[in-house]
Amino acid sequence: MKRIPMIRILLMAVCLILLAAPMTAWNAAQAAVTPVSVRLSQERAAIDMARESRLTLTAVVLPANASQRVDWSSSDTKVAKVSSSGVVTARKRGVAVITARAHHSKTVLATCTVTVTNSNLPDGISLGLTAISMERFSKRQLTASVWPGTADTGVKWKTSNRYIVSVSDSGLLTANKAGTATITCYSRKDDSVAATVQVTVFQKAAPSSIALTPATDVIGVGEVLQLTPVTTPADACQYFTWKTSSSSRATVSDSGLVTAKRAGLVTITCTSQQNTHVRVKREILVVAADSPRSISLGMTALTLNPGNTYALSPTVLPANRNQSLKWKSDHTSVVSVSASGVLTAKKAGTATITATSAVNANLKAKLTVKVENLPAPTSLSISGSSVVAKGQTIQLTVTPSPARTSADVKWTSNDRKVARVDDSGVVTGVKGGRATITATSKSNKRVTATFTVTVSDPASPTRITLNTASFTLESGATFALVPTVYPADSQQGVNYSTSSSSIARVDSKGVITGRRAGTAVITVTSRYNTSIAAAVQVTVVDRPAPTSITLSASSTRIEKGSTVAIVASPVPSTASRLFRYSSSSSYVASVSDDGVVTARRTGTVKITVQSKKNSHVKAEITLVVCDETTPLTLSLSSSELFLGQDDTAALSPVVTPATASTKVSWASSNRSVAKVSSNGTVRAVGQGMAVITCATATGNLTATCTVTVFDTTLTRVIPARTTNIAGISGNMAKIEAIRRSAVNQVTLLQKNRRITNSEAVLRREIINRAFEMQAFPWMTLNTQEYWSKAYAYKRYMPGNVYYGLPYIQTSSTGSYLNRRYNVAKALAEGRYYSSGKGYYLLNQNKLLEKMYVGNDCSAFVSMSMFGTDHVASYLNTTAIAKSNYYNTINSYADLRPGDILVKGGDHVILFLYYTNAARTEMMIIEQGGDGNTVICSLYNPSWFSSRGYVPRRRVGFATN
Prior knowledge:
Layout: H1 3-30, E1 37-40, E2 44-48, E3 54-56, E4 59-62, E5 70-74, E6 80-82, E7 87-90, E8 94-102, E9 109-117, E10 124-126, E11 131-135, E12 139-141, E13 145-147, E14 155-159, E15 165-167, E16 172-175, E17 179-187, E18 194-202, E19 209-213, E20 218-220, E21 224-226, E22 228-232, E23 240-244, E24 250-252, E25 257-260, E26 264-272, E27 279-287, E28 294-296, E29 301-304, E30 309-311, E31 315-317, E32 325-329, E33 335-337, E34 342-345, E35 349-357, E36 364-371, E37 379-383, E38 387-389, E39 393-395, E40 397-401, E41 409-413, E42 419-421, E43 426-429, E44 433-441, E45 448-456, E46 463-466, E47 470-474, E48 478-480, E49 483-486, E50 494-498, E51 504-506, E52 511-514, E53 518-526, E54 533-541, E55 548-553, E56 557-559, E57 563-571, E58 579-583, E59 589-591, E60 596-599, E61 603-611, E62 618-626, E63 633-636, E64 640-644, E65 648-650, E66 653-656, E67 664-668, E68 674-676, E69 681-684, E70 688-696, E71 702-710, E72 722-723, H2 728-751, H3 757-774, E73 777-779, E74 784-786, E75 794-796, E76 801-803, H4 823-828, ...
Parallel strand pairs: 2-9, 11-18, 20-27, 29-36, 38-45, 47-54, 56-62, 64-71, 73-78
Antiparallel strand pairs: 1-4, 3-7, 5-8, 6-7, 8-9, 10-13, 12-16, 14-17, 15-16, 17-18, 19-22, 21-25, 23-26, 24-25, 26-27, 28-31, 30-34, 32-35, 33-34, 35-36, 37-40, 39-43, 41-44, 42-43, 44-45, 46-49, 48-52, 50-53, 51-52, 53-54, 55-57, 57-60, 58-61, 59-60, 61-62, 63-66, 65-69, 67-70, 68-69, 70-71, ...
Helix pairs in contact: 2-3, 3-5
């Protein structure tokens, strides 16, 4: 009985031991497996704060059965911080290194370099040139180009010497005196982003004299007159200041455009800026809109004998204005003048005769009359037209000989039924035929001269047509009415009249001017038959001032001596079309009232178009006047260069025409990436992208070349396919160097905006998936055959460390299951297990159909491309060559990291990067059928192209 309790005790102890054994085994199994490495989903990442502020990093701890817990940290939390789940949040521009460290480990870690950018902030500024020359007193507009295109375009301007060159807030330069100054353009968001241009100011000689053209000295209220200075010598300084004696009567612009404001006399003064003592003045009479513009007496001097009379024939223009004149003699005892302008010489002496407009006392014409007892001439001659139409008149003029003899003659006609002549020599045609006009000297009746006049008698007109039946005219605008009188050989003279001159006015030439809103009828009547007439209805409208003006021209580059029309369009289109045109330099190009620009000398000129309804509404267009030495086009020998660090390349400007100057300047948008010399030699300085700009010295032409500088530290070291255990760390370092080089190239493409951020993420994933499968050191404890007997007997041997999941061909059973493995799947199924010494062992107990697992070339590329969950994850080479999941690339030169080269039915590889700027050597990664095939290799692209390999790219990626 005493033994029974003892047995029970023993049985209970055994049970407890048996129960404890599994727990101990379980605890041992769950004991922490030492992490060997940490892999991050990205080694380099970029965040553009203008588009996004976060990205998520994923960490994988290897081996797979180790704890996946990691600790996250940032090297600079002011730039980017990271959460415990790997979410990186950008805070400001800069670079931060995100570290994922295996929990409770100091040495097992992985890092990702995060570059934080903000495309709203500028990376650079270009002015398109680095040096310019300006003449003193000239102005030049600089234009800043800010990149990237999404950045804030606001800039600030600064000059190193405002006494030499000043600069406005908009970048307008003014050359103040000879010398050199530097203009700097800063981003208003970041003073460190800037561009400079060196300005050299030169000075021309001052003119010795100035004349003004045209000779016009009368303009109407509301009209404009462009005065153009002409200097002696012609190549003197062409910059002037303009001044008006009365801005209430007329204003004058900086370019000499006079605008009439109020009736009266005004003096416009043009002064050389180079020498203020050299100036010219023009007295201008501003008249009312309905006032005559000019009075002409046909002569400025006249000599009479005592007792002579002379009828003056004044011309008042326009002909439809008030023709009334007031006459005055300053010495009536010498010469008197009647109310109709008939002079009577009384005694020897000199008198000034003045004709003054009855409606404008400032509008005058003067004639100096000298009365003297001149001797009789020895002969006379008559000049003038020999043909006069019936009802028309002609003026005959007599000239005595010798010169200082009396020209006082008596005029007679031998047939007054054909032609009559008055005392002043005015002949009137009476009917068709010929008549002889005789001039007889009053001092000597034996001295005569004769002149034969033919009177034409054309047919009477039968009808008149006009170039329009009705039209609408804006108040203030003009329209030229063109009458056609039939038959063509009939009397062509017509008269114009208006039913309401307050609505529409018409002059003697048929030019209609709209005055105020309303309707008027313009009638055209034959001078020879008042029953023959035609009429047109004019509707005058008042249009509002435009809100803006758009300008266009057939070309903004015109040859010297040619013309181009500036077409101005109001916005909205229903607004006023009355514009005023002016030129910034009439020395370079002048512009007419209707916008026709005449190019005079080479240079740049700005044409300003201003609304007459609102002078604040204006628009400008810049024209370049060229000659045979001015470049019309500019291009570069290359538009794109790919260089390695310290490489050089020569750019050459190509200009047309062949006679054009090839003088250019060069500039680089980023001198830390590429520099360019004065002769166009580009030198690669650092990794990145720069734009080289070439600008002509004349003609304002630019051309650009994009330079991409690759990181020439790209590794070219090839890892071994097999090593011993001691060689693992060194070989893995070589593999990692290649992977990092490939990822760096993706980052460079992303930074230079050759690929999008999303494409960069996918390309990094492709590269990292490929290296995860190939950077896998493993050994076998038994000799392991690979490939089936149908191909060859090949073996993996004990004692060697192999890299990369092994190559799989069909097994003896014909199954392809064992070729569809990546590292994660192989470890998850226990096909390999960690040795704890930096390599994995092939598990002989976990063979699939008595075969190890891995992948072949097509499975390797497909899984690298799409992972394991995509329909295209296991396409073979034949399918890859034709699959719509890929696009064919135009050229091997366009290959980018993560693209492929495929030969259908044979082999496919993954492209990593070119190792040189010439693109004659490239690094690839592949899965090879030979156990000795290296993981990564260097090849000349021609090796693949000559064998029919086709470059292809994952669909959705940029094709260029």
